[in-house]
Amino acid sequence: MKKYKYLLFDLDGALTYSHPGIYNCVRYALKKMGWCEPTEQQLRAMVGPSLYNGFKQNFSMTEQEAARAVNNYRERYSTVGLFENEPIAGAKELLKACKEAGYKTALATLKPKPFADQIAVEFGFMPYFDLAAVALMEECTKEWVVAELMKAFGAKSEECLMIGDRRQDVLGARENGVDTAALRCGYAFEGELEAVEPRYIFDDLFALKDFLVSEA
Question: Among residues 10, 12, 117, 165, which one is catalytic?
């Protein structure tokens, strides 16, 4: 019997490379507010956390400024930025193999459900998910997302594996007693994943697929 029964997949940096759209929409949001051009590090840091928290933390915004920035961001993202995105090599094959191996899968992203579901449909991921995205508000945390998906599955913590690329994936899963398979092919900064000590680290989706299918 395989060790895990339920796989919780992050989206940005785990299944898709979404940074072109995110970067362009962050620039748009800041320019509309009269802020300076963001640095590359600030832009990269915006991939992963909720937009609201990302603007507050990376640009030292007040709550009101962050809320305004999110609204500006959404103006462009909902019509253009959403599609400035592409699947990571091996993503669809990984999901298909996991489904065929008998895993139950869920989309565990902080991206609001309408956008996450649309991306999953666009790239042909949706047929391989048993549960779609659950986050509806910008203030959602990865801890909450993992807990909600576990509740929906009726899953025990030791039966679940979180798959993501940033520290918040590892920490959010850990708060629920869940192991994480972290990916170096995503958006983590150098040393970020090692610092939070996920249960596993993989270089790419092909290595992760080999592990999960062999586990099955």
Answer: 10
